[in-house]
Each structure stands twice: as C-alpha cells, then as structure tokens.
Amino acid sequence: MSSLPFLPGNSFDLHLGRERFHKSQHFALVEGLPKLVGLEKPGIGGEPLPGQKIKAAHSVYPKVDGSHVPSWLAFDKQVLCFEAYFKEEEPYQIRKCKVYFYPEDDTIKVVEPVCKNSGIPQGTLIYRHRIPLPPPNDDQYYKVFHFNINQQVVFYCRTFTLTNCDTFTRDFLTRLGVQLNDPAPVPDDPYSRQRQQFEKNTKPIPPYEKNNKLRQFLDYDRQVLRFYCFWNDQEDPSAKPRELILHYFLFDDTIQIHEVTSAKAGNKSAVKFLQRRKLPKSLPAQVDQLGGDTESILLNVLGSDGLGNRFMADRLKTGAVKQDFYKDCDLRIGGEVNVWGRRVLIADCDEFTKQYYRFKYGIEDFTPVKYKLPPTPKPPKTLPPYNGFGSEEDSLSSCYGIQLRRPRKDLQSFLEKDSIVLKFRAKMKTDDGDERKRKFVIYFYPCDGTMSVYELSLKSSGMPGGKFLRRSVVKKPGQSKPSERYTAQDLYVGAELHISGQTFTLVNADEYTLKYMEQHAEEFSKANTGIILSKLRSIPEDKKSEIKKFLTLSDPNNTGQISYESFRNMLMDLDCGLVDHEVLVLGRTFSEQQQPEDDVALMLAVAQDTLRRKLYDDFQSLTLAFNKQDPLKNGRIPRKMAWNICESVHLPVSENLLGTLLTKFEGADGIDYQAFLAGINWVEHPASPVKYEDILRFEVNARVGAVEAGRRNVNYSAVLQDVLNLSSNCKDAE
C-alpha cells in the first residue's frame, strides 16, 4: 500500500487553497421589497455550477492590446453607423434602415427613416440595448467584430444586410484590423418605386416664373431708408413748404410718407401723406381693377356653369400690366419723387441711409438742399436783479418755472471733496500801515465753493483776532446778474480777493494745499508745470540772455544752484508773465533740498525713549504679530504690512519717526523686522540716553510744513538747459 496520497501536497480536499467561500444571493431588497435579482448566479465562492456558462457583461479587450482607460470613457460619444435593409415577403418590400453600434457598452439600436403615409410603424425598430447572437450562441452578445460591410446580421429572427457605413465607422474598424468588404447594392423595391412615381404625379407644378423674395426679406428685414423731403402746394402759393419724411422699406420696396406737423402751425391735414405701398413712377392710364395689381394672374379656362371652373396660370402674361415702380436707386438728395402727381423734393437723409448708399452705390456727396430760412434766434432771457431775500440760487429758481424747487447741489463733488480744505495766508491791501500788519488765514472748501476767513491775534496790535468771515459763498465784485462766485481756481499765491469790502492778497499756502494743486494740475492752471514752462520758453531772446547773465553772476562758484529768493526776484523783475504761485511751483519743481543723513542709532534711541516714557514693553506680542505675517520665515515682510502691524498694536511712536525707521530697515525683499524689533526693544537692548533737542527733531519738526525747506535752493542749471536751451557754463556768458 502506497502512502504517496497522504504526503504533504497530495490531498483530495478541493477547498484547499481557496479563499472565497461566500454564497451568491438570488434575492435582495429593492426599494424595501424582497425581489429576485438574478437567476444565473455562480456557486460557492463565485465558481460556476456544473454545466453553467457565465455570460460576459460586455466586450473586454486584453490590456496589452489597448489602453488602460475603461471602455465607457475611451469610447464615450462614439457611434458606429451602418446602412442596412431587410426584406418583407407579404407584400414584398425592401425596407431601408440604419444600425447604430455603441462600442462603450456593445449596445445596438436600429432606426428606420419615417416615410409619410406609409401605413407602417417606422422610426426606432429596436431600442438601444445588448442583442444576443442567434442560437445556438444565444448566451453571447454581438460585439464590434461581428459587423462588416456586405454581410448579414440577425436581430431577433430578422435578417439585416449591411450595405455601407460612414467614414468614421470605416476608420474605426480599420484601426482595429478589420478588413472591410466592398459596399453592397440595395435590391430594387417595386413598392418604393411605385410610391415615388405616385408622389411625383401628385406634386404640384411650380409657377411659370420664379418669384422668391425670401432672400431679400432675410437680408433687409427691419432696414428702412429715411429721407427728409418737402412739398410746395401749387394750389396755395402763400403756403410754406410742407415738411415730409419718406420711409423706404428695403425688404419689399414699399414707400411710406409722413408729414411733419406742428401744434402751432394750425394745419389740420392728416399726418399720413402716403400709405405704405409700392409707388409707381408715372400715373397709370386707368384705375386698376380689383386684383389687377397682383404679381401672378390666373385665367378661367372653361368658365361654364355646367362644366365647372378650371384655372391655369397666365404663362403668356396677356393680362399683365407693366408698371415701373420707384426703387432705392431712384432716390437721391436733390431728386424729385412723383407721389401721384405731387412733386416731392428730397432734401436730406439720415446717417444709416448715407452709409447704405456709400456702401452699395459708392455715393459720397450728401450735400443737403436748403429749402427754408434758418430759425430765428431766441431773444436772450433777462433775469431780474437779486432782491436780497434768501440765497441767490433760491431767487433764480422762481424765474425758471412756476413751481418753486430747491436748487440742486452737486452731490458727487460733495462726496469726493468733503474732507479737502485749501489753506492760504493773506494780508490786507491798504495804505494804512497798521492794517497791513494784520495777518489772516483763508480756508476754501471745494466741496461746496464756500470760504471762511480768520484773523491771527498778534501781541500789542490792538486786534483781538478770531473769526473775520463765517463760512459762506463769496461773490466776485462788479459782476453782472447772476453774479459769479469765487472758485478754487481763483485762489493762488499772489491773487487778490475782495471780501466784505476789503482787498486781500494771498501771500503763502501750506504744504497740503500746494501738493493738492500740483497733483490736480488739470484743474489749477497756476500749478500746471507744463503751462509754466511753455510761458518761459516763449519769452524773447534778450530776456533769456539777461536771465543767463544774472544767474551766472549770482553763482560765482558755478555750483548750479541759487537761493529761491534770488530766483524769484529775477523772474519778477524781468516781467516774464508769471505770478507768485507759478514762480513758487517752478522753484519747488527745480529745488535742490539736501538734508543731513539721519543717524540710525540716534533714531532707535529716540524711539526707545518714547516707548519707555509711554510704558510700552509688550515686545513679545509684537514679535508674534510679525512672525505670523511671515509664512516663509525669512525675517522679511512688506513695508505696508509692517506699518499695519505697528498701527494695530498702537505702537506709541510718531508717524514720521516710524516711517523713517522702516525706510532704514527696508531692503529689496521687504523690511528686516527682526533687526527693527531688536533696535526698539529698550528692555533687552537699551540704548544710551538722548537729548531733548534730538527728541524735538523727530517729534516736532515732523509736523512743520516743508515749504521753506523745499524751496531752499533752486537748480538753475536744469532751468537753463531744459527750459531755455542754454548752457550754464560761465565762459559762454562772458
């Protein structure tokens, strides 16, 4: 007796090595109800039962032969189309159809074209689904390789012959390696031939002439030519020319004329001068009978009561009346149109009509015809003088209408310029010495055009100072009604204002006002650098030579710079046509301001002293705030972000000092905030004490206007070279 079967690896247990022992279910819950979901289920572990064949779900190609993309994605929206036919014996008939195969899921659909009045159910013969092969292979389904031209396929006991396919199907099968057969002819169908003959006999005969206006309608629908015309009534020589508007409709060549009437003219005639219709060029010899103006004419052949009526088209046009109608080529400016005996002259046309004739006929001359005198100019409207009650705008509203309305204000200008205030220094223009010593400040508000005047109090002057004029609108003296008011353009350094019976001369302006006027140079001509330079370029050559000589003598060391006062006195003495404000702007433009370089250690010491006096020591929270805004952890953040962090924690340092410190620690990639924080940390890195003068240098001087500093020195060499086209070399002047 052999013991080989009992050795390891020689066992009769069929379940040895298997991992799946589940039982396939035939029932499942569908919408809460137990239903039979499958009959052809495998056995234990998915193994087929004895004699059972599992049908394939769909075509599966080897992965080595194609892409790894699933079929439903690879063949999405791809359909193979075959032309086919099948036969019917009783009665004998060849029925043509199309077979559609969807490679994504191997589904098939058969569609037969619908034929009118065939009496046969047509359309979709077989809806899209997977079709099994004929017996004995009915456990399998049709795949793409079962289709070829000039072969037969059987769908549910009906034989279809594939005769041809489209280009996409041919290329698709060729790429798969299928060798396509030649197209097969379709057998002759007696029934189809009989129906075609019947439809041909019953088809109506087309008219003897082609009258298709669809193209004209599609091209010119809603396009109308407009002409302005006039007509002189010969029966009434004293009547004025009657104005007309002629409309020509391009899509059907019809004309409509309207009369332009006025309520004051007293003309009671109808507004419609000509109803819309085709307009003949000449009057017909006789009035057309009913139906005589139709385009096609029918003849009554029999015309007998016993035989009935038989009509046919008039091929010889025996009853046609030839009549010439106005076309678009007949209408032009200066031409006449005969409107049933009335001579209408075309005087002008609109822009669309000009463009139409310019494009189609190449006409460029559209000079209108003058047929009436120009309208009489209206007399100027005189306004009564201001009576002193209320504001002048309120009084004028009663002159513009019966119903009084509040004058409108410019809300947009008010919202844009609400926070803008222009500030000027002024003094009185008078012969009294004491009055000339008085100093005033004039505030102008561009949002509503008002101004206020305050007087500065001076010691031992006898003038208390204070409000000189409350905020109100100031009118210019000697103006006609309605009087004009002072605007922002009337205020500049050197201007004279007449306020409350006194004449004020503006002698200076603050830095904000000067910058605002320079930034809005298109509104303020006195602060427009381009206009000022053009004035200097237009001065005579002799004055240019005097300017050259004066500047050379004023700068013996040939530094190219002179003081602003010398520069201003020179331009004002030579009478170059510039006012004080223009000279001031010119000096600010060509100023050379050299400020000493600030010491970083001194600025950090001043910042530490300020933080120490303000009892600020929360540097840990400040460091965390900077680190949070540094995602790269490179110790650099933008300048704007660093400024926002300092403001968010209310760092008690002046804006001027903080801005200067950030500039010192700013690099190409941002602010070095670690060095900045270490420099202002007075707890860990205390600095040496600072003097009170150094604190005032950064705390007080930061708020002083920079007008005098900005115009300290003027680079006159740039003025000579760029503006006057002269050289600043001293030898040339000699």
UniProtKB/TrEMBL annotation:
GO molecular function: calcium ion binding
GO terms, biological process: multi-ciliated epithelial cell differentiation; regulation of neuron projection development; specification of pronephric distal tubule identity
Domain of life of the organism encoding this protein: Eukaryota
Main subcellular localisation: cytoplasm
Occurrences of domain DM10 (ranges): 76-177, 221-361, 418-521
Keywords: Cell projection, Cilium, Cytoplasm, Cytoskeleton, Flagellum, Repeat
Any one cellular-component term (Gene Ontology): microtubule
Domain EF-hand: 542-577
Compartmental location: Cytoplasm, Cytoskeleton, Flagellum axoneme
Free-text function comment from the UniProt entry: Microtubule inner protein (MIP) part of the dynein-decorated doublet microtubules (DMTs) in cilia axoneme, which is required for motile cilia beating.
PANTHER family for this protein: EF-HAND DOMAIN C-TERMINAL CONTAINING PROTEIN, EF-HAND DOMAIN-CONTAINING FAMILY MEMBER C2
UniProt-recorded name of the protein: EF-hand domain-containing family member C2
Organism: Oryzias sinensis (Chinese medaka)
Lineage: Eukaryota, Metazoa, Chordata, Craniata, Vertebrata
